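The methods section describes the discrete structure representation at length, but only in general terms. An entry of this sort, consisting of the sequence and the corresponding backbone structure tokens, reads as follows:
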Amino acid sequence: MSLLRHRTSEAKTNLLRLSGSDTIQADFTAKSSPLHPVWNRMIGAGYARDLLLAIVQDSIRRSVKEIAFQGFLLHGIFQDEIGVCRRNADGTLRLNFVYLDLVLNLLVEELHTIPWLFLDYTPSCLAPSSSLRQFGDHIMNLPVSLSEWTWLITETLRHMVRLRLSAGFFLEILDGTGHAGFCRQLHNGRI
């Protein structure tokens, strides 16, 4: 609605009305077809860090109970607030999955939904400190070292596969090229 502030009051009112008539007609005698509720397959849940808040968790629980959402799309699993990746004083990287596991436990084990995770936003420990590009609190830079980025992605997926497979949940990773076997290779120790 923010773009409507540039329109006249009369134009705003007209946008909220049906064109021609305020009456909606439906033929309930027509042949029916099965309802395929695509709206509950997946919904954007925002950022992983938000799912650490009790009020957001309560909203997610309610949406699963009332609308039966089956999956949630999350951004920002590598943002600094989640704490997955940090750099030690000696320059080595360390991983900590505590907060990410809390988010995944809520979605997978408690609510029995499927998390759809974007592997986006570079953690500050991998970004160039001299030319940091931010969009809000998101770091938009490419990582300085692609080998460190690859290690972060691989270890994170390895952790999730190990955790989810032990809980009876198979994490399917699809990147548009049919790489569903990537997780099986991770689980079998080939990657």
The chain has a mean pLDDT of 77. The first strand starts at residue 43 and ends at 47. Residues 8 and 14 are 10 Å apart (CA to CA). DSSP finds five helices and seven strands in the chain.
